[in-house]
């Protein structure tokens, strides 16, 4: 099997699974309980928070545990909107955000907030000049992802941070779900970023656990009320085993980050050069300022899902861009926002690599692709 769908979810590290099993079976107390079993669970919880904070270069009090990237994005947008509505109701999100952000923004519009979508260039990057022109006195929040999940374009987080340097009243949220282990931390966790979302299963731990980074001093209205966990910000009993597993996975990911980035870049370059050489192949992902693990392309006249299943017949697993939208059969929203016709966007498929992949898999993929390409000649 060749697994090239790592942007959808990654294979958990054995070490992370071991940590999960050990904590789940031995540290089973509720961390809010007063007895010793609860105290043991609380110690594991806080030790995990401390380790994650160190790995993200922030303070322990700035780390809040969630169920994943979708909850973190929802909380960032809705929590900010309702906390700051007295100061304004204008929110800007980029036109290529993940559905967790765009659908949250859409819901907020139904609650009386005004949403503006920042356009992107034909290459898939937020247009800084247009973004600046959209900012108003009543703008309370700007949300831009670090790495686009559909084509891998790296958004100009540092430049946006500079743009907002003299606008402290605007909360800046970054969806960093696709960034961990794929970009240097300083490129998307700038000092101007107020909120950042992370999802554990994107960096080799179990599903159902994530992080919201909230800068000290920033206020968010809670989405969940109840027992007052997570400093009264997110009420529900913490999933201590998953959180400990996530801390282990994050440490392993960051330890080998430099080597991994180099390996993935070389694999992606080989794929790019080979696929770009086919007459009826369009490579939607560029070469400059793109994540080292994502390459999106299409074969003229062939719908993306047809290619996905053709590769699956050879035990090779790729995706039709966003996993969260693929079953809906919609064309890649990022490509539409970039100005591509729907018929071209519907051909898009995404290869997403990880450190576990190797050059032999790349060569095998290209061999199988050539076979599939020849079989599509009549369609093309």
Automatic annotation (TrEMBL):
InterPro entries: Aminotrans_V_dom, Aminotrans_V_PyrdxlP_BS, Cysteine_dSase, PyrdxlP-dep_Trfase, PyrdxlP-dep_Trfase_major, PyrdxlP-dep_Trfase_small. Pfam families: Aminotran_5. GO terms for molecular function: cysteine desulfurase activity; iron-sulfur cluster binding; metal ion binding; transaminase activity. Keywords: Aminotransferase, Iron, Iron-sulfur, Metal-binding, Pyridoxal phosphate, Transferase. Residues 2-365 form the Aminotransferase class V domain. Its cofactor is pyridoxal 5'-phosphate. SUPFAM superfamilies: PLP-dependent transferases (SSF53383). Belongs to the class-V pyridoxal-phosphate-dependent aminotransferase family. NifS/IscS subfamily. This is Aminotransferase, class V. It comes from Streptococcus pseudoporcinus LQ 940-04. The lineage of its organism: Bacteria, Bacillati, Bacillota, Bacilli, Lactobacillales.
């Amino acid at each position: 099997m060749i697994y090239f769908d790592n942007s959808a979810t990654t294979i958990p590290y054995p070490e992370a699974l071991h940590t999960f099993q050990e904590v789940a079976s031995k540290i089973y107390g509720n961390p809010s309980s007063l007895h010793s079993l609860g105290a043991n669970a609380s110690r594991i919880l806080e030790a995990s928070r401390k380790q994650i904070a160190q790995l993200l270069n922030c303070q322990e009090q700035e780390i809040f545990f969630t169920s994943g990237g979708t909850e973190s994005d929802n909380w960032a947008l809705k929590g900010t909107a309702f906390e700051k509505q007295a100061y304004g109701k204008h929110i800007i999100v980029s036109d290529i955000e993940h559905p967790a952000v765009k659908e949250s923004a859409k819901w907020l519009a139904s609650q009386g907030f005004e949403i503006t979508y920042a356009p992107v260039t034909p290459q898939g990057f937020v247009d800084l000049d247009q973004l600046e022109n959209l900012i108003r006195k009543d703008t309370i929040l700007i949300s831009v992802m670090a790495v686009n999940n559909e084509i891998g374009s790296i958004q100009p987080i540092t430049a946006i941070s500079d743009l907002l340097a003299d606008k402290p009243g605007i909360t800046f949220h970054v969806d960093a779900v696709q960034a961990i282990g794929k970009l240097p931390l300083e490129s998307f966790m700038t000092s101007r970023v107020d909120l950042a979302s992370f999802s554990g299963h994107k960096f080799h731990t179990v599903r159902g656990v994530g992080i919201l980074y909230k800068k000290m001093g920033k206020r968010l209205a809670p989405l969940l009320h109840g027992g007052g966990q997570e400093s009264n910000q997110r009420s529900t009993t913490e999933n201590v085993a998953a959180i400990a597993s996530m801390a282990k996975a994050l440490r392993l990911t960051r330890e080998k980050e430099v080597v991994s980035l180099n390996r993935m870049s070389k694999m992606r370059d080989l794929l790019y050069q080979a696929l770009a050489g086919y007459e009826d192949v369009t490579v939607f992902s560029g070469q400059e300022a793109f994540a080292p693990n994502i390459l999106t392309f299409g074969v003229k006249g062939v719908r993306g899902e047809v290619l996905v299943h053709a590769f699956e017949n050879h035990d090779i697993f790729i995706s039709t861009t966003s996993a969260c939208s693929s079953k809906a059969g919609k064309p890649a929203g990022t490509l539409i926002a970039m100005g591509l016709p729907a018929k071209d966007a519907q051909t898009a498929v995404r290869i997403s690599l990880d450190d576990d992949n190797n050059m032999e898999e790349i060569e095998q993929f290209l061999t199988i692709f050539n076979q599939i390409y020849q079989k599509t000649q009549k369609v093309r």
